[in-house]
Design a protein that fits this description.
- The protein has 246 residues and is an alpha/beta fold.
- The chain has two domains: 57 residues, Winged helix-like DNA-binding domain superfamily/Winged helix DNA-binding domain (Arc Repressor Mutant, subunit A); 178 residues, 3-Layer(aba) Sandwich (Rossmann fold).
- The protein is 38% helix and 26% strand.
- It has ten helices and 15 strands.
- The strands form four sheets. It has a seven-stranded parallel β-sheet with strand order 6-5-4-9-12-14-15, with helices on both faces.
- Strand 10 and strand 11 form a beta hairpin.
- The two termini are 22 Å apart.
């Protein structure tokens, strides 16, 4: 078994049980305990787990706040953002959700003429430096922990527009549970974004796959495509295009 395959299996075990032990993993994979410790260090560096004495425990990815999520799969987020940005043509209107992966998308949109509608102050700061961008910031109630605007004003602003593309981030995406987030207000805003976009694309690294948060945004079938760093059979089986970010 290659190291990457072994580490994916370790993550699967963590998802199921919440914790792993070095000794039992070494026995399972027939490798040394030092090899397993290196695996756990690598996985901890990507933000998937927290090392403990003799093993590791899983991080609750769907419930992490903005700053903590920034350390999970940063290279994958950059690749996903670039692949999603390639879908957008000059002159189009796009709705950009708040989130680290969507922020990477915004950075890759470059200087092409666009209308960009967003509830994210971070994305607005990026797009404000692009002279050909017609930037619309929704406003609303400021949510400092997650760096976005929300509430009735945000929803009303979104309802006034129609966009060629809506790009969403998420806390979790599950084969039965669909696209879910941890905050009710975030779910309401995301649903308004879906309603205003002709085509809706989820941008999410594979750490979100198989995860479930409290509040439903939409079933997977509501999406036009998912851009991610790894393939997903169950997303494709739902009739949704999966675009791989290489």
């Amino acid at each position: 078994m290659f190291a990457e395959e072994r580490r994916k299996t370790i993550l699967s075990v963590l998802t199921e049980s919440g914790r792993v032990e070095v000794g039992s993993l070494a026995t399972r994979f027939e490798v040394s305990e030092d090899t397993i410790r290196r695996d756990l260090r690598e996985l901890a560096a990507t933000g998937f787990l927290q090392k403990t004495h003799g093993g590791a425990v899983s991080l609750d990815v769907p419930n992490l706040e903005w700053e903590a999520r920034a350390h999970i799969q940063p290279a994958a987020k950059t690749r996903i953002g670039a692949a999603a940005a390639a879908l957008v043509e000059p002159g189009q209107t796009v709705i950009l959700d708040a989130g680290h992966t969507v922020l990477e998308l915004a950075k890759h949109l470059g200087a092409r003429p666009l209308r960009v509608i967003t509830n994210s102050l971070e994305i607005a700061n990026v797009m404000a430096n692009q002279p050909q961008t017609n930037l619309i910031l929704t406003g609303g109630d400021w949510i400092p922990g997650d760096r976005y605007f929300s509430g009735e004003q945000t929803v009303r602003a979104l309802a006034a527009y129609r966009a060629d593309w809506t790009f969403l981030g998420t806390c979790a995406v599950h084969p039965q549970g669909g696209v879910t987030v941890r905050n009710a207000d975030d779910a309401v805003v995301k649903r308004a974004m879906l309603a205003s976009g002709l085509r809706s694309v989820l941008v999410a690294d594979h750490s979100k796959f198989g995860q479930l948060a409290t509040h439903l945004v939409a079933p997977i079938q509501a999406l036009h495509a998912v851009v991610s760093d790894e393939p997903s059979d169950w997303i494709a089986q739902a009739g949704v295009q999966v675009i791989l970010a290489r």
